[in-house]
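Lab notebook, bench 4. We co-purified these components, and the gel suggests they stay together. Before we commit to crystallization screens, I want a quick structural picture of the whole thing.
Request: model the full complex, all chains together.
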Amino acid sequence: MPHAAGIAYAMKFRNEDAVVASWFGEGATSEGDWHEGLNIASIHRLPVVFICENNEYAISVPQSKQMAVADVASRAQGYGIPGFVVDGNDVLACFRVMKDAQDRARAGEGPTLIECKTYRFLPHTSDDDDKSYRSREEVEERRHHDPIERFATYLVDGGITDRAALRTVHDEVKTQVEAAIKAAWDAPDPDPATATRHVFAEDDA
Ligand SMILES: Cc1ncc(C[n+]2csc(CCOP(=O)(O)OP(=O)(O)O)c2C)c(N)n1
Ligand SMILES: [Mg+2]
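Here is the predicted assembly.
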């Protein structure tokens, strides 16, 4: 969030026609940097869209143990910017609220905070045993709201595409992801001399 605010400040300073978008989990909003980033972006009316992907858990910690508010979006009030809750499992609803926020940022009206309410279907990582902190019934119930399947149903029911075409897209994306993973494993280790790049200011030269 501080990086988003800093980059947006630089863009505004240079009169660039662009918007910074910053995505984070609801757990991230319990960190001090999050509030500092929002505050500075709000004061300077910077062109940033802050998007919280609220999947109800920060590793094993449920939202109720992270914050005393029901909606992350309500925190926008504390910074004098608009905050919106959106059904994060509804692709088109997310698109609409994001488009409006982007238009506001481009018009010089400053940042927006968007909270997409969704759910994490899998454990946090392959090391995490989510059976220790949530029931199988809860996970099964939420699976019915999977945004990918929901959007697929919308497209098929509306006659926009069919299941075979969606399968082709799925397979293409899977191939791309697998190729990207292989490329990452096969890539040479980074030069140790670059370890602090983007951490400290450097000359443009
Ligand atoms: C400053 C800092 N504190 C703690 C951690 C350890 N940590 C890694 S992921 C995580 C939970 C993040 O939860 P959330 O923001 O909801 O993201 P999600 O895992 O749901 O995508 C924590 C506490 C960290 N990476 N950095
Ligand atoms: Mg989370």
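Residues 25-27, 55, 57-58 surround magnesium ion (ligand 2) (CB under 6 Å). Worth comparing against the SEC data before the next meeting. The first helix runs from residue 2 to 13.
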